[in-house]
Design brief:
The protein is built from six helices and no strands. By secondary structure, it is mainly alpha-helical. The chain is rod-shaped and about 135 Å long.
Amino acid sequence: MEEKKQIFELLEPQSPESLVPDSWIEPWMIILSVLFALAVLAIFIFKKKKKAAFDPEAIRRAAHLEACQAFAKISETTVRETAVQVSIILRKYLSVVASDPALFETHEETISRHEALENFTEPARESAKNLFSHLASLKYAKKIPDAKASRIIDDGTHLLGILHHGFMK
């Protein structure tokens, strides 16, 4: 038998790039993604600019209406409980309207702040100071004071009107 002679031939090696699989992300996909992200960002910015203008007068009216409704719902129980309810309603109104931290402060802390109720006229500040002092004396008295709950509610409603109309713009 005759053996065939094999000839070995040296071939150039394959380039390593041909062994790496092709990427499934094409350049047009990247460009499209960037354009989409920019469009979403532009929409977000324009919507944020179009937000309704901050209307402090509308906020004051809404807070006044809410406080009036709360005064209408007060039940005349004891003088102390009525004083607490009136105080909370007025303090909540002040916290919304004037961004005043009175809702979260004690009576003494509120009075000791020099900038307390600075957005109100002087007569409104004085009326508030007087009524809050009176309410504090009713709330913290050792002996239950001899006062009418309806009078406390009327005083609170009156002060609410003074504060609502005594807000400096």
